[in-house]
Amino acid sequence: MSEDYISKLGAEQKRIFSRMVNGENIFLTGNAGTGKSFLVKAFDQYCKQNDVKILKAAPTGIAACNIQGVTLHRLFKLKTDVKSMLADVRNVPTEVMQILNLASVLLIDEISMVRIDVFDKVMKYIDLINRERKAQKRPDIQIILVGDFYQLAPVIPPLDKKMLDLYYGKNIGNGFAFQSKYWQSLRIQFEKLTEVKRQDGDKAFCTALDQCKEGDTDCLPFFAKNTAAKEQKDAIWVCGKNVTARLRNQERLDKIKKKEYSFPAIYTGIATASDGLCEDSFQCKVGARVIMLVNEPSGDYQNGSMGTIKKISGDEIYVEVERIEIATGKPEKHLVCVERHDFNKYEYREKEIIEELKDERGEAIIKKHKELELVTVGSAEQFPMKLGFAITVHKAQGQTYDAMNFKPEIFQDGQLYVALSRCKAADKMFIADPLTPKMVRVSSEVVNYYKNPENYTFFGREKDIISVQTSRDCEGAVKLLNEVFADNKAEILDFLQALSAKKKAEEKEKKEEEKSEVSVAGWNKKGA
Description:
This protein is α/β, with parallel strands linked by helices. It is 35% helix and 23% strand. The strands form five sheets. The chain has a six-stranded parallel β-sheet. Strands 14-13-12-11-17 form a five-stranded antiparallel β-sheet, with no helix packed on it.
């Protein structure tokens, strides 16, 4: 029997849950460890119990897998290049329309990692679908967005950034979803969980994390004084850079003078390594530290549990898992047998339901209708663990550690906050290098949004269409420009800028000529 999440909601969670059930468009946020994922599970439970068709999506494969949903790109048939993302949308792709027409709710998890252009494209589809639904007198698709913008920002390569800045007409910074015009037009309601579950009871630690999150360097003395003085034995290292985590894992594995095992993932269906569902190849040895990646149904281990490999036998790995016993509150070790786990890749599809009913006269009639179905289209079979000597801050997001060591290599907004908030207790966290004011980084746009979410606007509240008077000679050109502008914005802007530069150069040259003529005429007059 599945867990009953609804009955375990706290007062704060119940209030927000009620708004979600009432069909409001909600942005669910809150500090790390406040129970956002738990509330999502409760809402998902409600939808299943009440036959509310919900689409669950996330920006990455592993995030989608965690909520038993699909990636945004797969659900909305999006291409990955920025040019196609910025192309004008006139119609919703047939496959996407069929799925959205059957849904009542769209839930997007880890919304902080969704780029503004991706969000715009998705919400444009939703807008077009909702217009059709209004004509059919059907309710709009409800939007539930979940995440914390104070955590890691979307990834935007430099070349994409240039194109996005040009397209949006200004520097978009990190390009968060809340900067989108659709965030305003959909009237997304801001709801923030404030009751911290992860660092429960440690008010000073929570206060310092809040300060760090908001870019307040006053948090630094707390971490300098209250964190562990030496490396935490057997605890995971959280590193800022991929190369640091990779080298530390390999170095520690090499020090174990035992046989090395390699377990490649077994892919079925349309799942591939590029989906990032799990470790493509898991290298390990007896004695290696590991971190668990899923919640085991019996409760033997959870996502983020640490352990040590004690035995490897065929397709079974015996791990001594460490956990805190609820009854005693003390750490205990349990030997568990871990087998391969199916990391599934999902897809939403139409399903035709055929019912045989009877009419008023008792005669059999056939009734057909379509429903939404979540189907497994592929899977990656792999041990639900990875080497636990070290992990990056990006991969640590969403996890909780009883103890940890931290290598502060900070180069991104929100990175320090994400790292520090992974640990349950400050005195169980060792920080290898001093934290500096420059590391306390936060996006000014995030601060502005959270200060006044109801009235926040990035692009202003101007209408999409600006009415200007145009001569009849230009009407044809304006109409043509309007048709091709969205698909060729960069090229058209370059062309117009070139024309403008040419016109300015010609005007300058003309003025120079006129000035020269005036000078010559004056000289001739004097000479006469």
